[in-house]
Write the structure tokens for this entry.
Amino acid sequence: MSSLLPYSLVRKVLFSFEPETSHHLSLEMMKWVEKIHLSAVYRKQVTDFPVMAMGLHFANPIGLAAGLDKNGDYIDALGDLGFGFIEIGTVTPRPQPGNPKPRLFRLTEHGAIINRMGFNNKGVDHLVRQVEKRTYKGVLGINIGKNANTPVENANQDYLHGLERVYAYADYVTVNLSSPNTPGLRSLQMGDALKKLVTELSDAKVKLATRHNKRVPLVIKIAPDMSTEEVHHLAMVALECKVDGLIATNTTLSRELVKDSIFANEAGGLSGKPVFESSTRVLAQLKNELDGKSCLIGVGGIDSAETAQAKFNAGANLIQLYTGFIYQGPELIKKIRESI
């Protein structure tokens, strides 16, 4: 992502490759640009707009969503682009390869992506080693999940292990309950399973805060496909357990808005423009349910200053980019910041 070339030209080259290859190439390119100190040009273009949320100081409210840097291998390169915060992961206790390839699809005409990566990552021990080496000083969130071969009834142990392992290194920890690509995972957003998991994590967080003499906010990432009743139940659990924040939302299983795509029948989570309305609906409901008692992070379909503002209007304290960033590049961060 050289500052000497418009991102539109860089994207043309990157999009000529298969999506997962392009993903790795772009990250390696960013790392190279950071090492020769060119990426600092982007950071300087994004002036500070300080925000306090969850007891943390954010240089600006525009963050990078989890999924781009699953292993913490590119923290410094991504941190040089002007983001107010970076979220890495999703990371699991043990390394796992994820789902069979191909598992990533561009729906360019819809400004969207379908992925069924399946939490492919090098494991939490690798991620911690990478975090220890970072020079990036901004807010760093770490997103934790369960291994695919861990039965759902034992999922709590994976999340507790992840929380304990990353607690000392994270500014906040996100509990990913909403990826559609790990069988049974989304059931943890519902009913008694949700209450039990969040209670156990909240209790563990109190003990870890004492052990490390450090308070680390706990955030839950949820799906856009939940009913009004399900969102209400989740909000009540979040209030009861004093959850610090909620991320609304992850990817959708719906294909209603991309039925004409050749990839419409591909399994996985759909992100980008088509998820904007449903994710914003969930965000707005959470604002009403929580009444400012938890931080709200809006993500899903943000590809312009206007869509970013719509998330803030719906109740977001912070926002995150992913698919819009893939299509628009670092210039999107600057455009949003200038519009705030």
Remarks:
- The first helix runs from residue 7 to 14.
- The longest strand covers residues 85-91.
- The mean pLDDT is 95.
